UniProtKB/TrEMBL annotation:
All residue ranges annotated as the Phosphatidate phosphatase APP1 catalytic domain in the record: 126-270
PANTHER family named in the record: PHOSPHATIDATE PHOSPHATASE APP1
Coiled-coil spans in chain: none
Keyword Disulfide bond: no
Domain of life where this protein originates: Bacteria
GO function term, MF aspect, one: phosphatidate phosphatase activity
InterPro entries: APP1_cat, HAD-like_sf, Mg2+_PAP
Keyword Transferase: no
Keywords: Signal
Signal sequence extent: 1-22
Protein name: DUF2183 domain-containing protein
Amino acid sequence: MIRAAALLYLSVATLSLPVALAAPAHELSVAGWASARATHLSIQVDAYDAWRGSGPAVLQNIARLLPQGAAGIGVVCQVGEQSIDVITDQGGHARCELKTTGAVKVSLVSGEEVRPNIPSLPDAPVTVISDLDDTVLITGAGKRSSVSTFLGATVSNRAAFPDIAPLYNSFAARGYPLVYLSNSPLGLSDFLRSVLPARGIANGPLLLRALDAQTLLHSTQHKIQSLNELAADLPGQFLLIGDTAQKDPEVYTAFAQSHPGKVLGIAIRDVSGPPRSQDVATLLYTAGVPVIISADAAAFASLVR
């Protein structure tokens, strides 16, 4: 998918570029979450790309997928009265964790700054942690159709499974916060943050992947690291929801095995059929927690009593 997008981007973007007067040197994206004890920020600094904010949807989406990461940029993360300085890595990514809560400001030494609204997660008895692609949003990950689905996506046409909004809204109504843990690139944060409410789905922190050589080679690393960070800071149990398309069953099983008592249950949407669904069932049996595998997400509600 990334190779196809790159070729299209390079061939089309050179035809006509939108003109921006006094364009900023960098674009700054910030996502994350806070608990009652700490604030966790994921920051992406890219060279300015005029296509990200204008032009055809296909070029905007490719620009989001293939950011021009700015390495070695100084970043100041401020939460309340505390601040720390970090430097972006080769992919333009940086992380900040501050053991405090409050208003957030992230600024660059070059002058750009943002004041993001970082969602706060309460100390709930259950936190629902959900994948996005093929769990919430209809994508077809791993299929050729997923490329066209992504490239033509807009807030108005990005489709969600119809069984998700009632289920996730019922979780939110019961006081169970939602966290969306996805391998989608961090540059899609603003787009996905608009898509969820547009489909009537309860919002929550978006924990997306910084795309660099390391995370591309090890696609499970982002989810494993994020789950470990959430577990270290949130005292309640987790309901883990994913699908059979990629590695959610493998990641969730390993996490449940390494964190006894932390996982209330694992719910997997079957989008593959056999033999993948049979292999997933065999694997999840070793997790040691209640498990549901179903094409209908309404069945997942039985895991939360």
